[in-house]
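Budget justification aside, the reviewers requested a transparent look at the raw inputs and outputs of the sequence design task funded under Objective 1. We therefore reproduce one unedited record. The lines immediately below are the structure tokens for a 125-residue chain.
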């Protein structure tokens, strides 16, 4: 298993990244990922983090952005209360899907913004 995470180049890293991403199938999966990320960081004395999430492939698979965002938002407050570590979410636009494909999720984030705090930051990778 440890060799899976050894990457010699960016393409190798992305292959592993997308393999791991493929395991995020339900809102519960996203919620658990968010909680464990905060909890694991706290064990290394992390107090603040900005975590990118890249839902483009999940959205292409007909998952709903609102489900992903609300799942990510549900667990971090719990993890933050338990550990003292805080986390801000950053919405990442996957350039492989193009900017046109990103416009709909961005519009959805604007609608979701009142329901989520702090506001997601949008970045293009």
């Amino acid at each position: 298993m440890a060799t899976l995470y050894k990457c010699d180049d960016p393409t190798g890293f992305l292959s592993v990244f997308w393999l791991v991403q493929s395991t995020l199938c339900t809102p519960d999966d996203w919620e658990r990922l968010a909680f464990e990320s905060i909890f694991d960081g706290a064990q290394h004395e992390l107090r603040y983090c900005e975590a990118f999430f890249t839902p483009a492939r999940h959205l292409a698979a007909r998952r709903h952005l609102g489900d992903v965002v609300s799942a990510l938002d549900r667990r971090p407050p719990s993890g933050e209360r338990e550990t003292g570590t805080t986390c801000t979410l950053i919405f990442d636009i996957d350039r492989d899907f193009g900017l046109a494909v990103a416009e709909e999720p961005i519009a959805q984030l604007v609608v979701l913004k009142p329901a989520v705090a702090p506001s997601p930051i949008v970045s293009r990778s």
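Residues 26-124 form one domain. Residues 119-125 have pLDDT under 50 and may be disordered. Computational costs for records of this kind are itemized in the attached budget.
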